[in-house]
Design brief:
- This protein has about 425 residues and is α/β, with parallel strands linked by helices.
- The strands form three sheets. The chain has a nine-stranded mixed beta sheet. Strands 1-6-5 form a three-stranded antiparallel beta sheet, with no helix packed on it.
- The model has no long low-confidence stretch (mean pLDDT about 95).
Length: about 425
């Protein structure tokens, strides 16, 4: 039987990688890939058998002939914005912290702010109410501060009030790793499946210059001891170590990996970059055109710490544009961005005013906007993992296109991982 061959344009958000005698087509929309022969692709036009068309369309590798790539992307992005399956609550328990990190983006907030029992009750009642409506099938709960582990009694109260929910609960405790108690860990275990996200900014000499106590004493030794303790006593608990890259610690990655390997750390090691904040005067931020993230990833991979290429980016829009994501401050107020907590330009309304008409209006101002998307953004293959860059930084610091960074960091990692998979 002779197969009928058809031609299609590649979707705008499909990338092409060479692999010996074939090509790998990767969709930034679905994060899926497929291999083809090189002679099947001529510029941006691909030739495929008619019986494969549905498969290629489903992967969003090729462009739908009845709707453009961007128009189709808008539909998919809006489906993600209003999915109503996962309730994503990011709960700032407090603003106080026992460390004095010079690059902290929360220097503008009231360090005495701690969530009161009344606010805890109202917030938890609202979460229970939203779950009871039946539209959400899972709760993702992030506990963050300041330093949330300074107030284990708040975590205990949250656990008491939410542990009886009928839906699965997963979550993250974003902390500095200095104050993790057994009681706090047990309370999180009672709630559901939690990951403890702990920051270590390189080996000890580097870390202690960046994350220190008010008296100037470094925190590295204590954090490492706590990580070892948790791993030994709670072997099933998940730990992620996040290293914030800056000019100050870029040379300390190998030493950090050596220390983690010394006690067979079995969690994840990921990397972020310290970002420029309007409320921080830290001057050791990496140049925006850098490949240090890629270099750090490659060092970590030699120790067995492997990360997805686009781990540090959003997908189909960040939480600012998702109707099911709620960023709550210690006073029960909603903000549209985790980095903008305490910034009145991003404040929305009270989380507990859910049933008031003003609630949806206040939230929709961000959720239903397209941010600062330009024609260049809409035509860029990285749009599904970028959405025009970070809205908070674009508005508060400077509009910047991250394409160069993607090309020299994430895309290089993606290509290497894809090539390894097809070998």
């Amino acid at each position: 039987m002779v197969r009928k061959m058809l031609t299609f344009r590649l979707n705008k958000y499909t990338d092409v990688f060479e692999a010996d005698d074939e090509l790998i087509l990767y969709s930034y929309i679905t994060k899926k890939h497929i291999s083809i022969k090189k002679d099947q692709l001529d510029g941006n036009v691909i030739t495929i058998p008619d019986q494969d068309v549905k498969h290629y369309l489903g992967m969003h590798i090729i462009e739908n002939q009845t709707i453009g790539s961007y128009e189709e992307y808008q539909v998919l992005r809006d489906m993600a914005r209003y999915s109503h399956s996962l309730l994503d609550v990011i709960l700032h328990l407090n603003y106080d912290c026992n460390l004095r990190c010079p690059y902290c983006y929360q220097n503008n907030v009231d360090k005495n702010a701690i969530m009161t029992e009344e606010t805890i009750n109202k917030v938890c009642e609202q979460i229970v109410f939203l779950i009871a409506q039946g539209q959400y099938h899972e709760l993702s709960l992030t506990l963050i501060g300041g330093e949330p582990t300074l107030h284990p009694q708040i975590v205990h109260e949250v656990s008491d009030k939410l542990s009886s929910l009928s839906c699965p609960i997963s979550g993250i405790v974003v902390c500095n790793g200095t104050s993790l108690s057994d009681q706090l860990i047990e309370d999180c275990r009672r709630l559901g499946s939690f990951t403890f996200d702990i920051t270590l900014d390189g080996a000890q000499d580097y870390h202690d210059q960046l994350r220190f106590y008010p008296n100037g004493q470094g925190s590295y030794h204590e954090i490492m001891s706590n990580i070892r303790y948790i791993q030994n006593k709670y072997p099933n608990e998940k730990i992620t170590i996040n290293c914030n890259l800056s000019k100050k610690n870029i040379s300390g990655i190998k030493g950090l990996c050596d220390d983690l390997q010394s006690f067979h750390f079995n969690g994840r090691l990921i990397f972020s970059e310290v970002f420029s904040s309007p409320h921080s005067s830290y001057e050791e931020i990496l140049n925006r055109r850098n490949s240090e993230w890629y270099e750090a990833i490659k060092i970590a991979e030699r120790y067995g710490f492997v990360n997805d290429a686009f781990l540090r980016t959003s997908h189909l829009g960040c939480g600012m544009y998702h109707s099911d994501a709620y960023f709550i401050d210690p006073f029960g107020q909603l903000f549209s961005c985790i980095n903008a907590i305490g910034n009145s330009a991003f404040q929305q309304t009270s989380f507990t005013s859910y049933e008031e008409a003003s609630f949806d209006f206040a939230r929709s101002q961000r959720i239903e906007s397209d941010g600062l998307l330009t024609k260049h953004c809409r035509d860029c293959k990285f749009l599904p993992v970028c959405e025009g860059g970070c809205t908070y930084l674009n508005e508060e610091v400077q509009k910047w296109c991250p394409r160069w960074s993607f090309e020299h960091n994430e895309r290089k990692v993606l290509k290497e991982h894809l090539l390894e998979e097809v070998e």
